[in-house]
Amino acid sequence: MQMYPITKELQRAKKDQGFLETVGPEFSFHGLSVHFRGPNFKPGGLSEKDMMASFLFNREVSSLFPYLNAVAERAELHQTPRFIRFRHENRFCVFYPQAGLVTPVDDRAQARSFLDRLMAFLNDIYTRRHEITPNHRLHRRVSVLDILKLLPKTNCGQCGYNSCMAFAAALSLQESVPEGCPYMRSPLGEQAIYPVYDAKGNLVSTVAININTAKIGPLQNGPDASPHPDSEAPLEMDPEDVEAANMSLPTPLTPRELEVLCILAEGTSNNEISHMLNISPHTVKSHIIHIFNKLGVNDRTQAAVWAARHNLI
Questions:
Q1: How many other β-carbons are positioned within 10 Å of the β-carbon of residue 169?
Q2: Which domain range does residue 199 map to?
Q3: Are residues 60 and 91 in the same domain?
């Protein structure tokens, strides 16, 4: 993933310029800049018409990345470059060691108010850091559609999810483990990644060790595991759950957009959606753009993940 650049004006910001915001005992922000997003500013994948807040920290914040990775919503910890991405109060946040980005915001006043609360959240984590088990796991997402190729696609529900797509989405987000599906075959090999710390306890590198599963015996899912013998129909989704998930969005999807999203999540093309719904390909494309903007995603796979997580498919 590319590094999100910080404007030159923000880099030149000084504490004596009157922008210093003091919030909490440890972390605060200054150099606040609110602007429309350029083509490189994509922490949330929203429209370039949305506004973004950029700011500087009063001190380096990377020491809290593992704790944020453990407690923040949808946290993703990246090593090169070093940053963490997460959601807070339905906004996308990206923290680098000395700077941060937040989107979407409406104006400077709203950005300052949100950053006050965000710094309070950060300082609370700092205060409670001895009670939190840090999570140093780096984010390495595998495509949901690639994971789906490994599953029986019977929607049997034995994994605890309503569909194979939902389980694939959970695996992609590292919210479940492959052993959750009793019909996945054993891996040909595995790789364990171990952290290397310096004397201060900071993560400096990692060491990957390949594991020969043939020598240590079969895992829970044996090599002879076979697909589920019975092809079952997908479980019925609860309309109230779907409505609640939709209404939780800053701008809810329309009934037609929900319909397009459900079909899109099954891997169909724009032309196929056009024929199924008897609408023009241009209209389909317009619906999909609106869906991406409302969900805050970049592509069809991420949209399918959202649909699966909220039991639309």
A1: 27
A2: 186-220
A3: yes
Same domain, 198 and 284: no
The reply to whether 294 falls in a domain is yes
Least confident window among 15-29, 65-79, 98-112, 253-267: 15-29
pLDDT in tens, 8-22: 444 444 343 333 343
Q: What is the CATH number of the domain that holds 278?
A: 1.10.10.10
Query: Could you read off the pLDDT of 275-295 as tens digits, one per residue?
Result: 888 888 889 998 998 888 888
- Domain match, 45 and 97 both: yes
Assess whether pLDDT exceeds 70 at residue 91.
yes
Secondary structure (3-state) at 99? strand
Q: Give, in order, the Cα–Cα distances in Å from 168 to each of 62, 126, 160, 163, 229.
A: 31, 34, 12, 9, 20
Alpha helices in the chain (DSSP H): 8-11, 65-71, 108-127, 144-148, 164-172, 213-216, 239-247, 255-264, 270-277, 281-295, 300-309
* 251 and 213 both lie in a single domain: no
Q: How far is CA 38 from the centre of its chain?
A: 21
- H/E element, 29: strand 29-36
Which amino acid, residue 160? G
Please state the domain count of the chain: 3
Q: In this structure, what token pair is assigned to residue 124? A: 């609370």
122 & 17 share domain: yes
What tokens appear for 138 in the block? Answer: 């780096």
